[in-house]
Every structure is written in C-alpha cells, then in structure tokens.
Amino acid sequence: MEMRSREISQPHTSTASAAPSVSCSPSIRIEYSFPSQVAAISSFVDSLILLLTQCRCIAGNEGEVETAMREALNNAVVHGNHEDVRKCVSVTCLCELGDVSMTVRDEGRGFDFTNVPDPTAPGTIYSTGGRGIYLMKAFMDEVRFEEGGSLVHMRKRAFRTDPRLCGRE
C-alpha cells in the first residue's frame, strides 16, 4: 500500500535576531481515504505505523497508537459506514516533533458518544460493545468526538522529545 504525504516540512534555521536561533519543527501530514472494508484496515495501519516509526514520531508509543488507530478505523468501517463499500473512511495524521494527532471520519449518522457503556463495569464485562472506545481513551492522551460521533480526534504525545532530531545534543 502506498501512502502519499501531502506536506513534509524540514527543519529550518531562522536568523531573525542578531544571534542565530534554530527553529526545529519537522512535520509530516498524511491524508488517506479508503472504502469501508475491514480487510483494508490492517495494511493501512501497518504502513502508517511503519512511517511514523521511521520518522520517530511516536517513539515508545507505537503499540498504543497502532491499537487506537485500529479501533477507530474498525468503528468507522463497521459501526459508522456499516461496511458499505460505497462509503469511505478518511484519515488525517499530523506528526510533529513529540506529538501525533489523528482524525478518522466516516460517512455514517454518528452515535451518542456520551452514552457508551463502560466495558469494565460489572454489568457489561461480557458485552461486546464499547471496548474500542475504551481502548482508544486508555492509549491516547486525548480522544474527542465531533459531528455527532462520525469524526474522532486522537492525540498522543511522545514520552520525551529527542533533541538529536533537531541537531541539538
């Protein structure tokens, strides 16, 4: 699977003052859409995580980001678009130093995200619903739903920023 990055920014040097200063803000922005098929999820996520890992966007958080993305995409394909291949799932991923933000959008009617049962509660421990959202919230630093639940924003901050990425040690 080939992903195309829409925008790639490289670190640059700014000399606005008398003393040179380094402004380090490398970023990668990815936009991707695919038809609502469960089979399409795995190859996309594998490619995305490989790219983010190679770019050191999510150092130490690969498994958490991967699980959250798989759950968000599965929810969009299965629950949002009801596996209707005429509908698409759209993903945007912005990777900046020490931070990755992702959105997943489906073409469904949404859902009441304030009324999802807690899958760890005694009465719902064997329920099949709500686990994906639970995992997304457990693994990401920020998860929020918009547009009636058909758009999810997720954000993960890296454990630490590696100054070597900017040429500083």
Please give a handful of descriptors for the protein shown.
two-stranded antiparallel sheet, disordered C terminus, alpha+beta, 26% helix, 169 residues, globular, six-stranded antiparallel sheet, Heat Shock Protein 90
The biggest beta sheet is recorded as: 6 strands, antiparallel
CATH topology assignment: Heat Shock Protein 90
Provide the spatial order of strands within the biggest beta sheet: 1-4-5-6-8-7
Backbone CA Rg? 18 Å
CATH architecture: 2-Layer Sandwich
Q: What share of residues are in beta strands?
A: 25-35%
Residue share in helices?
25-40%
Q: How many domains is the backbone divided into?
A: 1
CATH superfamily: Histidine kinase-like ATPase, C-terminal domain
End-to-end C-alpha gap: 36 Å
Please give the count of helices: 3
N-to-C order of helices and strands: EEEEHHEEHEE
Average pLDDT rating: 81
Shape: globular
The number of E-state strands comes to 8
CATH class: Alpha Beta
* Parts with pLDDT < 50 across at least 5 consecutive residues: 4-23, 160-169
Q: Helix/strand-derived class?
A: alpha+beta
